[in-house]
Amino acid sequence: MKKIIGLVVSLTVIAGVCAAVLAYVNTITKEPIAAMLVQKTVDAARAVMPAGVADVAETDGGVFVGKSADGTVVGYAVTGADAGGYGGDVVLMVGFQADRKTVVCYKTLAAAETPGLGMKLNTPEFQAQFGGKDATTLKVKKDGGEIEAITAATITSRAVCRAIAAAAAKLR
């Protein structure tokens, strides 16, 4: 009986020390991780803006506005998400022309799709299909649209179309 109590106490102490170490590491890394995510979002917003953008500023609603050197609005960037990806949420930063509906391009902020299949949403060939398209009418060909779905990843392709439409809806 004493041996069992000794083992329980030892295991409890070890678990307590491990929990304390994890809590300490979490407090140290929490702010740098948050800052990196903010920087990743800002960098993505700059990357998806149309040509001719000299300055990018974020509004209160999380919409990035791109202006030319003379102050004219050239485009917008906004996040769009869809929970219907094969691996869960697909979160994109989508760039739009000044008309607020024509897609420039997108960058993936978060996606847990199948490597080699659904993660092809990041390939230039797949992304190029969206440039110049009206975000409100995007659909894969299987659903009567213009977008060629990723082979064996139609669910992901549909999620990208819906995420872009969700981003456009934030601009209306």
Mean pLDDT across the residues is 93
Give the overall shape, derived from the CA principal axes.
elongated
Estimate percent helicity: 40-55%
Number of strands: 5
SSE pattern, N- to C-terminal: HEEEEEHH
Q: List the total number of helices.
A: 3
Strand order of the largest sheet: 1-2-3-4-5
Uncertain residue segments:
none
Query: How many domain units?
Result: 1
Largest sheet: 5 strands, antiparallel
Radius of gyration: 22 Å
CA distance, first residue to last residue: 70 Å
Descriptive key words:
alpha+beta; 23% strand
Characterize this entry briefly:
With 172 residues, the chain is α+β, with helices and mostly antiparallel strands. The chain contains three helices and five strands, in the order αβββββαα.
Protein architecture, described:
The chain is of the alpha+beta class. It has one domain. The chain has a five-stranded antiparallel β-sheet with strand order 1-2-3-4-5. The longest helix is centred in the first third of the chain and has 46 residues. The protein is elongated and about 75 Å long. The model has no long low-confidence stretch (mean pLDDT 93).
Topology:
Elements (H helix, E strand, L loop, with lengths): L1 H46 L7 E4 L5 E4 L5 E13 L2 E10 L5 E9 L12 H5 L25 H18 L1
Antiparallel strand pairs: 1-2, 2-3, 3-4, 4-5
